[in-house]
Structures
1.
Amino acid sequence: MLAAIRKGAIANLPVGASVAAYGSVLGMLAAQQGITWLQLLAMNLSIFAGSAQFVMVEMWVPPLPIVEMTLAVLIINMRYVLIGASLQPLFKGKSLLHKAGIIHLVADENWAVTMAAYRRNGSTTGFLLGGGICLCTIWSMGTLLGHQLGALISHPERLALDFAFVAVFTALTVSLWRGSQDIAPWVAAAVLAVAAEHWLPGKWYIVIGGIGGALVPVLRAMVRTPEPPAAPSASSASDPLPKDGP
């Protein structure tokens, strides 16, 4: 288990640099919103979901809109239903306590790294946990560093640190590519997400794009015509029936 945890942590170090970069942006924004470093650390450890934390920080205006904030975070994090379902092969046969102890540290990045490793050579929940520990540590360090710099940098977007978020997911997407079989689900997810972002309020496009893309292979399997059974060969048809007894 410890070897798998170590392996997972090392495998996630390359994406850790990008995680630290856009974590620092979150820290800067949090400082400008009046969030203390202790509150930010508690948010990192209890939520550990970058996109949801960005939304929370943007909505952090006293009096806090608790209901609206909760619903927004719930909608954004609904993608973890799909992520959890995709991890079923890794958690198969594991206890509920084992699952609960690891699933909290599942983020988009270590999920993608783990699934890529699983498709290549197989992977384990220890590998997934190691990546989660690595990224949670780096994320917390990045956000707290950005929090300290927040008072000095009034416009963090001018440093293009927020582009790290786009860059890391572009790289992770490429690593998950399996060939032509992924074209239809990826295109469907992109089209549905863009349409939902244009026509629907909030972050529903994340859920709609994810569910739509996941349904494509399901529908493709349902409409696929089953192959007819092979006809018996002439030689097998001419063979005599087996006799009873010796």
2.
Amino acid sequence: MTDRPRALPPGTVGSVRVGRTTVSGVLPLMPGRRRRSPLSTETSWIDAGAFSDAAITGRQRGILKLIVQEYVQSGRPVGSKALTEKYVLGYSSATIRGEMAELETNGFLQSLHTSGGRVPTDLGYRYFVHMLMDAPELPSGDQITIRHQFRQVEAQLEQWVELAAVVLAESARSVSVVTAPRPAVARLRHLEIISLQPRLALLILVTQDSMVRQVMLRWPEDAGQPELSRLADELVEELRGMTGSDVDARIAVGTGAKRFMLERIAATLNGLDAVEQVEIRHSGLENVLTQPEFAGAESQALLEILRGGGFLSAMLPQIESGSGVQVFIGDENPTTELRRFGVVLATYGVGGEVSGLLGVLGPTRMAYGRSISSVRYMAHLMSGLVSDLYGLRADDQRGETQR
């Protein structure tokens, strides 16, 4: 016979410490057996300062946590009847409705239909991430599997980036975004100048991270290959290891063909530092295109965000390098196009020398715990790989999740 909801004796229900308030736990009903409380007995895993004055009671915290979890799982608005049928809460459906109404008044929940249940608002998700979510840690079995997958590919940066996108999408069950690690600024390693016609040449510029850029040059006067080769050798000797800004500072003292080349080299190096030059690898579109939030035109909007440079242009100024995992929910995102999404990002790399970006995006109704733990672990793994590749000391990417 299926269990019926019933109150439990004092002391049999779990609790979670959030700030100075203890939130009573609840037990979900399952046919034939009972599971542990969905409200963790662990302390809140992130600083609660941002919500220390929030007008929300302990009972409302418990209800909000369950509503977020149920809505993330089902995608359907959650009503009081659904909660009382699944969980032993210790209070009536009418009491829950009253608490849900209060949560809606305070901006944590909203009603999509007059007669339906409630769904979390951006503020409700944010409160959940800060105050109610269990400490996100990727299961050890998943960590072992991911490490094994990386051992199966050659020690090449290109393959690591491709695999990171695929594995992160599978782990977080969202769309992944990964950029290859790049130096903080482009530095010159080598250059060649190839004569094509008396006044037409090709500049081949190689940076220290092996990026190659070719630029067509129109000379102000005739120049042969011997002359161009001597100039190239002189410039390599003088400029090796310099940034675009460093080369800019030398333009004033250059004359003739050398000044002409200094201007072109500086412009090329500075252009390589632009956001538009960063390529995004993504994977896992199928994980979100089947979600109701991305029906019809919404799916095309997602594709445009990923294919264009708008995502990086919008998000990079918001990212604090080395600050661990950072979460942006709905209206917290910097552009209108991104405000229908939840975004979880982290930088990875080696100190201030080399860094890349990785993360996931999906509907605001994403499983934030799984997303955060997946992004955090992948950033830590990729930092170690890049450290070995470049022979530098890796950043500590295990910091707390940031706003």
3.
Amino acid sequence: MACSLNIGLSSDFPPYHSKNIGRDWEGITVDLALILAEKAGCRLKIIELPWARSIKLLESGDIQLISHFTPTLERAKYTQFLGPHHIEKVAFIANSSISPAANVPALLSQFDGKIGITRGDRFGQQFDQYVLNNELVNTKLVDIRNNRDRVSMLLIGRLDGIFYDEMSAQYLLASNSRLNNKYAIRFSLQGSPVYWGVSYRHVSITVRQALNKAWLTMREQNMIQATYQKYGLMVDMQTLVDFPVLLLSEKNE
């Protein structure tokens, strides 16, 4: 079977997806997506896109695959979910000198500064509770187009804090002395599973069947752990397998 899948990724989200000095794609998500496509008998094309734009193109079918996708009722209108492929814990990184007491989610409303989130971000129930649905916090939020702009704006002082995937935040602080000297992770929210999102109306039943089989094989052969280990990182597989596996429908919708 020959098929083609387009995936939308930003180039600024290490260690998951980014471009190296030679402008080649690398990262955990890149490797997992390539393995998934290969085992399903598909060619994978990576298209560099901001996160919010990727969601729009997934809905229209111009791309067929997206990663780190949190299921919602709205997204389920145009997406089916495969996975989970990661447990996403979101961390709040902030200037260490601003509102030091705001170091737990319940006290975030006391944070006296601007907080950046990437447009389209959804991080589970706690994020909704303490951030999106909290009027005292919501007024402090600044929608940012992509991850690169979010970090840049933090560095130049246009933002005072940002929400970021915890593993990516740790990677960012460890590799950037300017950030590490001035900013710290104040707290992390409860982890929630994220999935491959598939634009099922634009992916045939045959390909969906192949993707399901490929993903189950990757789990059984410990390919997820091996991919994280390639980058010197560990994945909490026990937590990952505690969540039910979601597979793509193999019926006409």
4.
Amino acid sequence: MSIEEIRNYCLSLPYVVETMPFDDTTLVYKVGGKWFAVTDLMENSKVVVKCDPDIAIELRDRHEEITEAWHFNKRHWNAISLRGDLAESFIYEQVYNSYMLVINKNVTPRALRIEILEAVAQYNTKTDSRATYNSDLT
């Protein structure tokens, strides 16, 4: 799996904006102005995603390709290696879960959150989103 595939997937999700707030290589993906994924063009071997703290630890324990995200709050952010044995569908699912977690917990005002969730519902009915949001994991 490549950073370009992650980038294309992130940008396919409703209301996602790609920014480069730090330098010319770090890509930050936001929904409703809040971060949900980070990649680096130079170190193109991982994606960093937000995760429920309890699930984050469980995923790290279960998969050697998932570690604490360097320079991020270790309770909430995981780094996922794109070079290991994880299935692409699993990686897409983690990105999608991060996206939905941020929408549901961090996007304000409520009216914007509702607008985004309605767009996500339409997106999910029109596309194969590659991942199904699991509310138990966020």
